[in-house]
Amino acid sequence: MKKFFFAALAVAAVALVGCEPKPAPTPTPDGGDTTVVVVAPTAADLADYEEEGNFVACVHFAGAVCNDIVFAGSYNGWATDPASMVKFEALEGFEGWYVAVVPVTVNEETGEEANDGKPVQLADDGSFSWD
């Protein structure tokens, strides 16, 4: 559970890096305000993704459609090869929520977990760039 929340906080700050804005919503027929409710997943909703030696990164891309988002980070030595990165997938039943299962990195000197990383959108040709 602690790993999930750490990952969500670490990722949320840069989550909008690789998404495109959704089209504006259609106004209601009466011209009134519309209330939007975002249903967030709970730890129980993510239980199927939990695996020993991994952490679950779950982020919400508000008002965006995301495709080909990967998690780049310390778990793969910050490598730039997309094949070595974990890809986010849409979380079924939760609009706008995406999840990735990322291997935990352990600092060999201190023995502490160091799960640094961020989501990045791949280019149209599937290549990776920090830009």
Morphology call: globular
What is the terminal separation in angstroms?
32 Å
Spans of at least 5 consecutive residues whose pLDDT stays below 50 are 4-24
Mean pLDDT level: 73
Radius of gyration: 17 Å
Strand content: 25-35%
Number of DSSP strands? 8
Report the total helices: 1
What can be said about the biggest beta sheet? Answer: 3 strands, antiparallel
- Structural class of the secondary structure composition? mainly beta
Folded structure, characterized:
The chain is mainly beta and 131 residues long. It is built from one helix and eight strands. The strands form three sheets. A three-stranded antiparallel beta sheet has the order 2-7-6. Strand 6 (89-90) and strand 7 form a beta hairpin. The longest helix has 11 residues, at 2-12. The chain is globular.
Quickly describe the structure.
This protein is mainly beta and 131 residues long.
Observed structural traits:
3-stranded antiparallel β-sheet; mainly beta; 1 helix; 8% helix; 131 residues; 8 strands; single chain
Set out the fold topology.
Layout: H1 2-12, E1 19-21, E2 54-60, E3 64-66, E4 69-73, E5 86-87, E6 89-90, E7 97-103, E8 117-121
Antiparallel strand pairs: 1-3, 2-7, 4-5, 4-8, 6-7
